[in-house]
Every structure is written in C-alpha cells, then in structure tokens.
Amino acid sequence: MAAAKFDVLTIGNAIVDVLAQTEEDFLVREGLVKGSMRLIDGKEADRLFEHMGPAQLISGGCAGNTAAGVASFGGRAAFIGKVADDELGRFFRHDMHALGIHFPATPLTDGTPTARSMILITPDSERTMNTFLAACQELSPADIDRETVEGAAITYLEGYLWDPPKAKEAFRIAARLAHGAKRRVAITLSDSFCVDRFRDEFIDLMRTGALDLVFANRHEVLSLYQTSDFETAVSCLERDIKLAVVTMSEEGSMVVADGRRVRVPAAKVDKIVDLTGAGDLYAAGFLYGLSRGFAHEVSGRLGSLAAAEVISHVGARPVESLRQLAGQAGLAA
Amino acid sequence: MAAAKFDVLTIGNAIVDVLAQTEEDFLVREGLVKGSMRLIDGKEADRLFEHMGPAQLISGGCAGNTAAGVASFGGRAAFIGKVADDELGRFFRHDMHALGIHFPATPLTDGTPTARSMILITPDSERTMNTFLAACQELSPADIDRETVEGAAITYLEGYLWDPPKAKEAFRIAARLAHGAKRRVAITLSDSFCVDRFRDEFIDLMRTGALDLVFANRHEVLSLYQTSDFETAVSCLERDIKLAVVTMSEEGSMVVADGRRVRVPAAKVDKIVDLTGAGDLYAAGFLYGLSRGFAHEVSGRLGSLAAAEVISHVGARPVESLRQLAGQAGLAA
C-alpha cells in the first residue's frame, strides 16, 4: 500500500448555503419541521427564497464542510461533488481551492444550476434546511476520480448521497476502490429522515463490510434501529460495525469500538449562534485525528472542538484556524 | 408639501460583498492600502478572487447598507441602484425586498454582471475593499424614479456615485427633484480617496446649497480641506454647510449644526469583528432619527448604536433588530 496522498477524501453534495435568520412563526406558516432537511425542486426553491429573510451565501454541503474542517486542522483534504459552471459553482470551487482542498471537478454545463440549501436559523440557533439538489443530481460514477480515492487514507461519504440515484452508484464504486487500495471507508448517516428513507441499505452496507466507520447522532441511530431506547440502538450499532461515533449535542459524543465505549465531553461555547455544520465539523476533527493515528478520545476531542467553533457563528465552515485552536487546547494537532 | 411616503431614500452603487478573512501579508504582497477602497476591472476581480481566501457573500454597498439600517430601525426606506439580471443581482434584490425596502429596479440585461466588492478583513478587523463596479457603471438619470425621490423625506447619496459618469448626472437630478419637492438632501463623502478624486465638486455642491447634510469621517474631512488640522477642517465644514456629522471611530462622532457642536460617544462593543459598514450604519441611525424629528444628539446615539451592532459580526448589514436594540438602550425609536 502506497503512502496516502490525502488524509481524508469526502464525497457528497456540493451545495451553497443560503442562510437567513428566521422567526419560529415562519416555520409554522411554511409547515416545516424544525431541525430537518427536506429536498425541494427549483420552483419551490424560488418561492421559498422570495419569502425568506435577508440572506448570506456561504459554501456548505456536509461533506464539503467536513473537508474544510480537515483542511483547517492542517490535514490534506480532497473533495468530490458536482457543481455547475455558474456563479455559485465558481464560488464553491473557489472556496475549496482557497482552503487547499483537492477538488477534481468537472462542472456541469447543461444549464442545471449549482445546488443551494435555504437554511432557516431560528432564534434558538436551530437550523432547518431546504435543499434544491440541482447539479448534485448529476454526480455519477464518472466523477469518482480513481487516483484521488486510492490515494486517500479515509474516504468519507454522506448518507445524503443516497438521494440522487446516480450518486448512490458513485458512492458504491468509491467504497470498493478505497477498500481495493486497503483504505478505510466512513459514512455519516446525515439525518434521521435520510435514515428513514434508506435504513435497510445503510444496515446492509455496514453488515457486508462496505463501511469501516459510521457517524450518527442520537436521532439517526434511534431511527436506524427503529427504537426509542438509546442503549438498544447503541448495542445494535456495535454489533454491526467495528467503529462508530454517536454525537449527542451538548452531552458530547461516544466512540464505540471493539466492545469499548469512550465518552467524550462537548467543548465549551460562549454563545451558540447557528447549529449548521456541527455534525460535519465533529466528523472533521475525528477523521483528522484518526488519519493521524491519535487515540479515539483525542480524535473525539478534536471533533468537539471543531463543532464548538462552527456553532459560534453563522455558516457551516470554520472561520478560525482549527489547528491553532487545537494547539491552544493542548490537543496534538 | 405632501406627507413623506419614505423616511429615507438612499441612492448608490448596488454591490454584493465578497468577504474573506485575510492575513496582513496578503495586503502587502498585493500592494493594497489597508482600510481603503479601490476600483478594479473584471480581469483584476477574477485574479484577486482566485488568490483570496474562502469567502461569504452578503449584500452590501454603502447606500444599500444604510437603507437596510433604516429599515431595521423600523423606518420606511427606499433604495435606487443598478443590478444586473443575474444570480447576484437577484440575491441583492431579494435582500432589499426581504427588508421591506422599496427598490424600483430595472436590472441590466446586456451581460454586464452585478457589481461585487472583494473585502479583505485583516486580523485587526480593518477592511480593505476592491470593487468591480460592473452594472453600477450603468446607473443613469433614467433610474431616478421621480415619485420615489419626491416622496422621501431625506434623499441620501453616496460620494462613490461620482465614479461612474452617468451616475453623477443621476445624483444631480435626484438632488434637484428632492429640493423641488422641499425634501432634504444628504451625502456621505464615502472615503478619503473618493474625496481626493472629487474634492472641488463636493465643496461646490455644499456651497451652492445642493446638499443639506454631509457625513464624513475624520480622514475625509481632512482630505476635503487639504489640511492635517482637524479644527481647521471642522471650521471650514461648518462654514460650507448647515448640518454636518463627523464620525471618529472609537471616539464617537460630532454633530456640527448652526455654529453648535454636539459630541456623541461611541457605543460599547464587546468584540470588534469586521469594520465593514460602520459608517453606513452610523448614517442609518442618524438619518432615521432626523427623519423622525429627534434631537441631533439622540440621532447621533442611534448612529453609534447601529455602527456598534454592525462591527460585531462579519458583513455590513445589521443581523439584530436595531429597533429592538434602540428600545433596550432607552432611545426612542
């Protein structure tokens, strides 16, 4: 096995976030489930945009955010996702390149726009996402750059890739290529509704050994095993996969590995502003630590630290250097 | 004179800000003067964008920011400026409408893009602006909606409008229409380099009575009268115009009216993050207060409060309700 060229490759939907502060009333009027992600079409995207408040545009997408986090720790990151050859696509690509993230993109030129997610931030800092996948629907096996996958110590895939049909196939191919090169494959279950849509397939991927590491939050792991008992869910999880991380918001996280469970506390946040990206950045810290051979607890602490940074401001990507913050916290990074 | 339909109409360059955190080194390498605004062409905009860090897009432009501030105080605001019929133009228009700002726009369709300003924020929170005016070059007398101008208690113009030649003519026409309807006309001198480019014209506008109120910061008023002595500059200013406001960063501001000078303290800020928009939001508070007939000192305090809000986060428009903040501060708003 050749030395890895990248610490972490993430594959996911390439999305520009359209973030706006929103009153609770607006969610009620629109019939939106707070904290969830729903998929919308272009027409609904235009309609919702017209009704939502003043916004800011920040590159996002779960896997893109995680790559940004890995890069901010000083890790060698790569990203695969589909943008269009338009203004937002150029903006997204710019941000990846500016972070030093390898992004072997072939932008779409058929007129389909770059994906956007309208993210409504309520006064409790919770985010409710409305995603128009657009160009992301066209991510296909042809976009899976073999050299990049084989050169990455860990390939990290988002569960949301199960939504666009061609992306699902791209996901499977990437996982096979990675394992063929004796690399590790990780997944995030993305959200409980996503788990609900693809439960059997996710469990099958775990049981057949297509995945080495699963990230899930409490809602997702409960949804995965269709139980309301957390202990039951975690027991199922540890039977199905050798390494799993369950994030639990302000209660921190739990690393489940080889029959052992390690609890990791959440990091302190002065003021929570916007929860968008918390899970993505937790994954960034953990994956970075894992790629560097740190103990699971240290990797979990790097995850907590990254999550704390990203929820202290609007937008799902770090604005402070995570490498510097890790150094200040006494975590080898 | 009919009752005003709008408290404040602002006319200026319609710009989307592309904001990025930047190390001091980058400014040095690029030969940029910290704190300034320079005009660049499309080619230079592309080149600089490629080299700058990850960014966020937030609607900006001095006059647009001021209108957003007036609206946030609960004032009836209108804005005139030129966007293109493209993604950024739609984003800018959306933000104005979402704030309830009347924006009688005819977007440009000749392929010229919407203006953008690449704003580099250094660790000291100072901002250095690189503006590609693009569609703003096409603001012309035809865009000056007579009904809107005549219906606004105050028309506020930015000095930067002196850069695009047709906009200058539009400015003059707007000022005449406003005075014809017995309304007030205000200007911001925008920046000291702008003053340097158009010194004689600005002084002429003041002396001929085309303006009723001038906003300037310390650098601008020194540049206007080509002196390094602040007292000399202020004395000249009060001879040339009946109402002027000089902003002095952390030292607050001074309202100069009819031979009297009123000092207004700056408002407390926990942590300064990004100075972009400080002057624009000060003007919003002052203009809102003036339109409601408040004492100059109260209007100045509203300006200080709005400036303090906007420098506490990235982006040049308020994210908290200025009306609410004013209420909490015991200022009638």
Walk me through this protein's architecture.
The structure is a homodimer of 333-residue chains. In chain A, helix 3 packs across helix 10 and helix 10 packs antiparallel against helix 11 (296-310). The first copy, chain A, is globular, with a radius of gyration of 18 Å. The first copy, chain A, is α/β, with parallel strands linked by helices. Chain A has a single domain, classed as Ribokinase (UDP-N-acetylmuramoyl-L-alanine:D-glutamate ligase, 3-Layer(aba) Sandwich), CATH 3.40.1190. Chain A has helices at 24-30, 42-51, 62-72, 87-98, 146-150, 165-180, 192-207, 218-224, 230-240, 278-291, 296-310, 322-328; strands spanning 6-11, 15-21, 37-39, 56-59, 77-80, 115-121, 127-132, 152-158, 184-188, 213-217, 243-247, 253-257, 260-264. Chain A has an 8-stranded mixed sheet with strand order 5-1-8-9-10-11-12-13, sandwiched between helices. In chain A, strand 8, helix 6 (165-180) and strand 9 form a beta-alpha-beta unit. In chain A, 59% of the residues are buried. The first copy, chain A, is built from 12 helices and 13 strands.
In short:
The structure is a homodimer of 333-residue chains. The first copy, chain A, has helices at 24-30, 42-51, 62-72, 87-98, 146-150, 165-180, 192-207, 218-224, 230-240, 278-291, 296-310, 322-328, and strands spanning 6-11, 15-21, 37-39, 56-59, 77-80, 115-121, 127-132, 152-158, 184-188, 213-217, 243-247, 253-257, 260-264. Chain A is of the alpha/beta class.
